[in-house]
Structure formats: structure tokens, C-alpha cells
Please model this.
Amino acid sequence: MREKSGGESEGLAFWKVEGAGNDFVLLDYREKPGPRLTTGVVRYLLDRHRGIGADGLLLIRQGTGGTIVDYRNADGTPAEFCGNGARCAAAHIMGEGTDRIHFRMMKIPVVAVRTDRAFAVQVGTAEERRMPNLSRLRPRPAALIHAGVDHWIVPVGDVQAVDVVGLGMTLRHHAWPGSKGANVTFVERRRAEIRIRTLERGVEGETLSCGSGCVAAAHWTLEGNPGPITVSTRGGDQLRVWKDEDEQYWLEGPTRVIFTGTWPLAVAGAARSRAAKAPVAKG
Model:
């Protein structure tokens, strides 16, 4: 299954993967480190018109203390964590035959296991952050949850009817969580499940699924109970979230390889040149 990383003449070997509709370009630098990818090159690589196209980039490399998964958003910026990305990286690594692994996604330690139905990752704790008085804001959030990254939680009666981008951008750029802003997850509570849709920071749009959004919504819904709880996403997939005896959350759901290929390094060079010549936006 594993391909060798290509040299200059072969280009950059990649895997296009998805976890519950959240799609990624995956690069494996463990055996042979590849070229350094600037913010502009990553943005070009993930562009759905000029590049391979994806919600994010997963770069697997070997660090001094073990395997590290670096993550970049579609706009080229790094993110602290990505739940579905962690599951896709785990599936790639565990394709080598193991059933349990440990790695770090950025600075967050992750445990991953192969289950009967899919791949599950232990993603750490979640906590509700203090919120200012936002009673006059529309949409009005019920909570600000940190689950690797920040999520505004907005309860709704019918999540399918929500204008996720139109309504979500008001909260997305609210100053309270910090300069980076936060994701916005709309949550519909059902009897046996919750349904969510998320406006993702760094993508600046809605994705078919958001793993950290699933965990944040589950934490808010479970109100201290361990679960499990089923989370239905925009793409139609169902994920499971639960909390173990150590108060650590787990996220389980489907992953698959969509296709593999080679990205010509000449294209990366052109992307680097294009990014260098691009005008800088001034606020």
C-alpha cells in the first residue's frame, strides 16, 4: 500500500483522503522528507480549482519523540487540531498493520485505535469557556467550547434550514475568543442523536463534517454524562463521541482513501512564485 516519496523528477506523492466528508491532502514525510511547503504553496495545493483541492493538509513526519502530524487549513494557516484529520492520519499509519498507535497532532497527544466499524481517536478533554453577555447578538450562542480548537455552539430547531455561512460569519470573527476567532457549530438536538453543521475557521465556509465540532457539540449536549452519543453531519455520515473514565473524549467515524497521485514539483515552484507576487491585503 505504501509508496515511496518521489524525488525531484517524480514529484510529491500524496493521498487524497476523507473522514465523514471532511477531505484532506495527506503527505507522508516519514521515510523521505519532502520540500518545505510555504503558506502560499499549501493554499495553492488545497485550491479546488488550481490544485488538488481539500479542506486541509495532513503532513506526517517523524519527530524525535515519535510520529507528528502537522495540520494546515485551506487558507494555508496552521490549526491546533483537527478531529477528522487525526482519524484519517491514524487510518493511513495503521494501514501498516497495527491496531493502536500514539502520535502528536501539532502539540496535542493523540491515541488512535482500529474499531470494528472504523477508526477512533482519543482527542483529549473539552471545556466550556467563559462567555461575555451576547444576549443581543444574532445568532445567539449558548456556549463557547474548547475541544482542541474553539467552537461557538448555537442551538437551532432545524439545522438543515440554517444559513450556516450567512449567520455564522457574525460569530466567526467575534473578538472574544482571540485574534483567530472561532468555529461556529449549529446544533439540533434529537431524541437519540444530535445533528450539526459547522462553519470552519481557516476554510471560511461550511464543511461536510467537523470532528472537533462533533466533540464540542457532544460535550455541550451530554452535560457531564459520558455518552456515547451519535452525531449526524452535513455530509450524511454518523460519528460517535464518548468520554472515558479519565475524562478523555473519543471520536469514531468512517475514513477512506479517495485517490492517490503525484503532484509535480514544478507546480509547487510555480505556486511559490505566484504567492510571492500576490498583492498583500491591507486592513
